[in-house]
Amino acid sequence: MVQARNADSPRRKRRSQLVRGAAIGILLGTSGLSSPLISPAIAQGYSFSQVTIEGNQNVEAASILKLAGITRGQQVTAADLNNAYQGLQNSGLFEEIEVLPQGSRLVIRVKEYPIINVIAFEGNARLKDEVISSVIQSKPRRVYSPALAEADAASIAEGYREQGRLAATVTPKIIRRDDNRVDLVFEITEGKVIEVERLSFVGNRAFSDRRLRQVLETKQAGVLRAFIKRDALRPEQIELDKQLLRDFYLSRGYVDMQVIDATAEVARERDGSFVTFTIKEGQQFRFGNITAVSEVEGVDAAEFQQALRLRSGSVYSPQDVDSNIARLESLALKNGLTFVKIEPVVTRNERDMTLDVAFTLRRGEKVFVERIDIEGNTTTLDEVVRRQFRTVEGDPFNPREVRQAAERIRALGYFADAQVNAEPGTNPNEVIVNVDVEEQPTGSLSLGASYGVSTGIGFNIGLQETNFLGRGQTVGLNLAVTSDSGDSSILFIEPAFLGRDLKLKFNAFYRETDNDNATYDTRMIGIVPALEFPVSEMGRLEVRAFARESKLFDLYMGTPDDPDTPEDEFQLGTTPIIVRDADRGPLQSFGAGLTYTYDSRITGLNPKGGTLLRFGLDYAGLGGDVDSLTANVLAMTETKVWNEDVTLRAVFEGGAIHMFNDEASRVTDRFFGSGKIRGFESSGFGPRDQASDDALGGNYFAVARLESEFPLGTPEEYGITGGLFADFGSVWSLDDVTGWDDSGGPGINTVDDGFHLRSSIGFSVFWDTPIGPLRFNFAKALAKQDYDKEQFFDLTISTKF
């Protein structure tokens, strides 16, 4: 059995002996020198007519002499001999070194470091051998270096530290083999993950610890710590957390906020850590007087004053200031004013805690963009990166535009890193913009699962490439299946059609339902090409065309009309309304539509929430079998109150379909309000043929949902919050209301399609789990009709993994 030993201790001992021996030899010169002659010998130095190299096997003698820096006949002193020893030692080639003067002959005796035979890792389970091998510099068939082995051990320990295993230890050891070879073994003790047991704050008054923890990248360890890896302590992440805290307070008007200290203490058992941030909030400031001032001759500031979108009295935010600077710069370029810069001059008013901002127009230096150089994009085409800039070669240089372009490049999601900077050009008044990117994979395969009380378990699989052929195009294929439906679609998006901010979309879909709670099935297939473009800072417009075909099939015809059939076993078939829909056969519709979307969240100016407005119109009548106009609207707003611990949401949705030429709407085109009002089953409210129990949908729907989300007092690392909600709405109006009558024959006006307000209230539990966000809804229907179908409990889960 070959025993592994640490070579460092014997080696250091032997080196110490050799150094002492060399020093004695240098001082004495030869064994015949007596004590009184020591000082003169040192003073006059040595001259060697012969230098002998001993012990070298792989390193040439000439190389050793060069490292020592000594040649034959050279006059050397004791300091020169010491330098020779140090030069040989620093080469890292020799395990033992002796520099011995012997009269007129100098003997340099070395023992070379062995050659590494194999490298092995012992004790590692969390990191595979392949991963560790990629971070070390020692390699087989190379000279063994103790210093390099120690550095490799530190690199391996750093890899474990990044996983939160601060207690990991790595010890390099060698096993001697024949022919001056060794096996290098790294003995690893991985230790446990040092989790963040507690994140706490000192000095915060405006915001609770819970709210501030949501800002940090570091997370506390929770009940699901076996699955969640973000709870490990990473010291380098503390600096990022400090900056996140500063940005959070600054965006809410706390301009004097400081992170005084951030400490991370490891428990004595090294199984947990406690991180504390000491902060000084200061006072919250609001905007005071907002003005535009011109220092450019011939430029009136009145037009720029009107372009400002800041309100006195609102909470100060640097993002608001930056947004208005960009607005004024755009106005200046529109008016033909080049080399004009907008500088905000801020004046503090301590008495009323406001900040006056004067947006000052000043002449800037005449600097042009010489060129834009892009490097690192091995897959992505240059034009994809270049179109993120609003300036081209020859345009006036705008540092703000360069910073915004850098943000847009990073937001693409194509690159692991993107650095944009400017450097002096070939002329004094020119700059070169350098873009250095690092590609990352942009394709994805997603496997998903979903669950709903009414829909059951569902599965979906999706393939998507967001940078197809490096052109920035999106190509996707998706397939979703539940217990009673199937949905497949193909998607293609060109984000810069014709080289402009014009998004080209193409979507093809196939949907089929196999309704367990209905007496018929449906099938729909269609294609939708569309163009989307901006119409304002926060508004976009989509125009589209569509071609669809819908079909009803597998209608249930009921129990055969047999006199021998017991009355309690007789069942009616599909309602005559659906039968008449099915008798129209497959219906084809061709048309066009548009959707306007206003989303204040895209600017990020309001950190407490935002507003989303969407309005759409679709006209089907450009050929085919359907002539109709369908309108839909969505309005949603969200805000945080009570020091941002409580989130309030309000959502309104509505829709209407109008048929032309006295046609009747079809069940595949009508609104059902599925999932719109909690407390009711899917298709559980609205017009219904009570005899066959078929939900019919309606030509109109309107719902309003009010909701709050708040902490429940549980540890926030569990990801559990609560909510209260109240829903109101209805689905109503049919063109055909002739269904079954009580005797099983066709009846007149037997279906109630009037407007009947439904409402419900309830309580929700939100749970953010590693497998996806879970939501438990407990609802009670208050206003309802006798034929509506209630649902007290609902659980939804949707995730991708």
Summarize the structure.
This protein is of the alpha+beta class.
Task: Please state the oligomeric state of the protein chains shown.
Answer: single chain
- By CATH reckoning, the class of the largest domain would read Mainly Beta
Per DSSP E runs of 2 or more residues, the count of β-strands stands at 35
Beta-sheet strand percentage?
35-45%
Output mean pLDDT: 84
CATH topology of the largest domain: Porin
* Number of helical stretches of at least 4 residues: 13
**Mind telling me the CATH superfamily name of the largest domain?**
membrane protein fhac: a member of the omp85/tpsb transporter family
User: Ranges with pLDDT <50 over ≥5 residues?
Assistant: 1-44
Percent helix range = 10-25%
Q: Write the CATH architecture name of the largest domain.
A: Beta Barrel
Quote the distance from N terminus to C terminus.
48 Å
Query: What is the count of structural domains?
Result: 6
Write the layout of secondary structure elements.
Elements: H1 8-28, H2 38-44, E1 46-47, E2 50-54, H3 61-68, E3 75-76, H4 78-90, E4 94-102, E5 105-112, E6 115-122, H5 129-133, H6 146-162, E7 169-177, E8 181-189, E9 195-202, H7 209-215, H8 235-250, E10 258-266, E11 272-280, E12 286-294, H9 302-307, H10 318-334, E13 340-349, E14 354-363, E15 368-375, H11 382-386, H12 399-411, E16 415-424, E17 430-439, E18 443-452, E19 456-468, E20 473-482, E21 485-494, E22 503-513, E23 521-534, E24 539-553, H13 576-583, E25 587-599, E26 610-624, E27 628-641, E28 646-659, E29 688-689, E30 694-695, E31 700-711, E32 720-732, E33 758-769, E34 772-783, E35 793-800
Parallel strand pairs: 2-5, 6-8, 9-11, 12-14, 15-17
Antiparallel strand pairs: 1-3, 4-5, 7-8, 10-11, 13-14, 16-17, 18-19, 18-35, 19-20, 20-21, 21-22, 22-23, 23-24, 24-25, 25-26, 26-27, 27-28, 28-31, 29-30, 31-32, 32-33, 33-34, 34-35
